[in-house]
Amino acid sequence: MANPYKNWILLNKIPHLGSKKCRQLVEWFGSPQKVLSASAKSLSLVPGLGREAITSIIQGVKNIDINEDLKRIDKLNIRVIGFQDPLYPPSLKTIFDPPFLLYVKGKLKKEESDALAIVGTRRPTTYGKLIARKLARDLAREGVTIVSGMARGIDTAAHQGTLEVGGRTIAVLGSGVNVIYPPENKKLVEEIIKRGAVISEYPLGAEPDAPHFPQRNRIISGLAKGVLVVEAPSRSGALITADFALEQGREVFAIPGNITSPNSQGVNRLIKEGAKLVECTEDILEELNFSSLSKKEKKALDEEIPSLFSEERKVFELLGGEPLHIDSVVSKSGLPASKVGGLLMKLQIKGLARELPGKLFVRDR
Q1: What does 1-29 look like in DSSP terms, one character per residue?
Q2: Minimal CA–CA distance to 102: which of 75, 84, 119, 76?
Q3: pLDDT over 70, % of the chain
Q4: What gap in Å lies between CA 239 and CA 214, rounded to an integer?
Q5: Residue 219 Ramachandran class (φ > 0 left, ψ -120 to 50 alpha, else beta)
Q6: What sign does the dihedral 4-2-176-22 (CA atoms) show?
Q7: 104 within 8 A of 81, measured Cβ to Cβ
Q8: Are 13 and 32 in contact (CB under 8 A)?
Q9: CA distances from residue 256 to 52, 158, 250, 276 in whole angstroms, order as listed
Q10: Measured between alpha carbons, how far is residue 323 from residues 19, 174, 260, 331 in Å?
Q11: CATH of 1-75 given 3.40.50.150, 3.90.1150.10, 1.10.10.60, 1.10.150.20
Q12: Per-residue pLDDT averaged across 308-321, rounded?
């Protein structure tokens, strides 16, 4: 059986076109098949289509072999969604330059309306990662889909936090969906596919080239009702996503940061320019009016804190988002140092605390 998207895939791989020209061509001729079978003379009648693009189409039909792509799509269970497909996300149709084609691993819901993008620097502070994970967890518990870009740092923390409570998350890649970048996120990708989707507009095998990342940011913001920037220096891809959000009529939120930290320069500037300052999830939920989950749905998503003995709870409640030295835990708890060490170990085993270098501890939930 022929792949119904064979011609879409071929057109998407032709150089010198891009999403905008591909969409224009399909709208002009009626289908990718008619575009690919058109003569040079017919193509020259398309407004704005230059000689280079016309030559590229004619040569691409002759020279580009997509049989390997079709085999991989079938083997890896990849779904191909064109911009005319009923499953194409409605929110993306409203943005400037929506992607011509999406390669999807996992599942996109037909109506992915309650979504928030969480983005930030690839080199976050410990505080930034903890905040991204916590907010993603709390929002996911309310039924909000978390969208991000799978990059190191804040993006990864946002995906992880969502998955920790069984929430739904979408990762938008700057490479083909079969090219995992960064490579250490291979296991994370597998988990996201189970609970959401990994998507890309780039053909299979496309490498994570630098120009791809700012371009994919329009999809991250386009899929969401708003964008939350957790940490970002003055020159950051997260700020590009925020700019796209403003152009698309989405809300922009920012976590205020330490004024002495380079990672705060971008987010603090966003707040100066009108981004909504966020101190808790309610600041986002109230602004975007997300649909509330039923009690049954919320219970299914929520992960209750395991039962703690009194001394375990005492130590747990001392921990927060800021790293706390073990000596401070001993001092504030009034418990012997030998006992505190054991209690901290138990909290780590239960996934409630994490040790950082230098005998520092933070809450992990």
Answers
A1: ---TTHHHHHHHHSTT-HHHHHHHHHHHH
A2: 84
A3: 93
A4: 10
A5: alpha
A6: negative
A7: yes
A8: no
A9: 47, 17, 19, 10
A10: 46, 33, 18, 15
A11: 1.10.150.20
A12: 84
What value, to the nearest 5°, has the Cα angle with vertex 323 and ends 319 and 328? 65
Q: Each residue of 17-30: pLDDT tens digit?
A: 989 999 999 999 99
> What does the pLDDT average to over 45-61?
94
Q: Looking at the domain 115-301, which fold is it? A: Rossmann fold (3.40.50)
Phi, psi (rounded to 5 degrees) for 253: -120, 155
Residue with tokens 């749905």: 297
**Model's pTM, two decimal places?**
0.80
| Confidence grade of residue 354 (pLDDT, cut at 50, 70, 90) | confident
CATH number of this structure's domain 310-363: 1.10.10.10
Q: Which residues contact 356 (CB under 8 A, 6 or more apart)?
A: 126, 323, 362
Q: State mean pLDDT over 113-123.
A: 93
d(CA 71, CA 279): 48
pLDDT of residue 111: 56
Provide the β-strand partners of residue 228: 118, 253
Ranges of each domain in the chain = 1-75, 115-301, 310-363
Report residue 2 as tokens. Answer: 């022929």
Label the pairing between strands 145-148 and 115-119: parallel
Give the Å distances, CA to CA, from 46 to 43, 211, 244.
6, 27, 28
Residue 140, classed as helix, strand or coil, is: helix
- Backbone φ, ψ for residue 362 (5° rounding): -135, 155
- 21: how many CB neighbours lie within 10 A of its CB? 20
- Angle in degrees, 0-180, between the axes of helices 265-272 and 237-247, rounded to the nearest 10: 20
Q: What is the DSSP letter of 207?
A: -
Where would I find the H helices in the chain?
6-13, 18-29, 32-36, 40-43, 51-63, 67-75, 90-93, 126-141, 154-164, 186-195, 212-222, 237-247, 265-272, 281-288, 295-301, 310-318, 326-333, 337-349
